[in-house]
Predict the 3D structure of the following.
Amino acid sequence: MPPETSPLASTLHEIAPRSGVAFTLDRGERLTVIDPEGEQVADLLAFVRGDLDEVISSGRTLDYASRIYLTTGDPIYSNRSNVLLRIVADTVGRHDFLLTPCSADTFRIIYGDTHPHRGCFGNLAAALAPYGVVPDRIPVAFNVFMNVTVDGGTGELKVEPPLSRAGDHVTFQAECDLVIGLTACSALQSNNNSFKPIRYRIDPARA
Amino acid sequence: MPPETSPLASTLHEIAPRSGVAFTLDRGERLTVIDPEGEQVADLLAFVRGDLDEVISSGRTLDYASRIYLTTGDPIYSNRSNVLLRIVADTVGRHDFLLTPCSADTFRIIYGDTHPHRGCFGNLAAALAPYGVVPDRIPVAFNVFMNVTVDGGTGELKVEPPLSRAGDHVTFQAECDLVIGLTACSALQSNNNSFKPIRYRIDPARA
Ligand SMILES: [Zn+2]
Ligand SMILES: [Zn+2]
């Protein structure tokens, strides 16, 4: 039978612009995050299912990698130094793990908005609430496709347009049973001034 | 009377090498962290007293500063985007807010130690436990005097000897009532291969 009707064919999901979702990902399953139009960021969180106090940690991951730019082969560690996800494919190679998810605070403090959008933080909080994650437990997300450069001399951070083009994607393999939060990012600067959707696909564990 | 017997003269405390302490700091009080011998890192944490779920956030602080190197005048934000501390004096200007506190995991994963020291993480967890802080709530610390450089091109992180010399210091002003955790860091690489003490002083709020 043709691949698109195979019982193993995975469904392609779409996250609307400036929104977010949460879902479970089982150990061994692979999550592919796709930028369908290009230059669109997706904030990714992963919590250990059954013990939500264990969550991805930028501080531990960057420390053990000795590198701020992660790509294929790199593990994403938890706050207990366990590997929660492993990057197994990456067509871009530039993602951010330094900056907080955009939020009403971001838009108020950085953009000066008086009626700020809830941002990725609010979208993640809302999507993850049914799984039992409270807002204070949301750490620095792995910001897929976000292009943050660092001036090694001055330490200046710049949010540049993503390097992702239409169809670019990153695949993460779950190293344990997880709850995932994922957004189509809501910050103008991070997405070259337009809000676009994000797509994702979950593929079963390989035999 | 001479200054050293004034009732307002603040006591100089010493943190022994490879250890840590916790204490309260009231709104308006100033904490000065001193490197008595030079080239010694001190990991600093601050939690809001009465609501320990609010804690310093590297992701929010670096985002709002648009800079990885913080110094005099810079605020340190919480995970709820409130300013917990403000740097009001700094004789060094090079501190780290990217990497996790060193821990038994650090020493096992990076150094290959088979009987690893508990590190700043273990020292902070032990010192903060009487205040009700559990280990999973320990985020990226503000690593006073830690000298982490970033290669802007490759993203490579390097832990270099601290730029602090004997007597260098940083002063933080509390913007609300806090619980502070503070260490003399236990990682060889962060401290140019020797473990030294850290001193600190608390000065009253200015009238
Ligand atoms: Zn966002
Ligand atoms: Zn340390």
Q: What stands out?
A: Residues A 43, 101-102, 119-120, 185-187, 190 surround zinc ion (ligand 1) (CB under 6 Å). Residues 22-203 of chain B form one domain. The interface with chain A takes residues 53-54, 57-60, 62-69, 79-81, 98-101, 103, 105-106, 109-110, 136, 138-140, 149-152, 154-158 of chain B (CB under 8 Å). The CA atoms of residues 68 and 153 of chain B lie 16 Å apart.
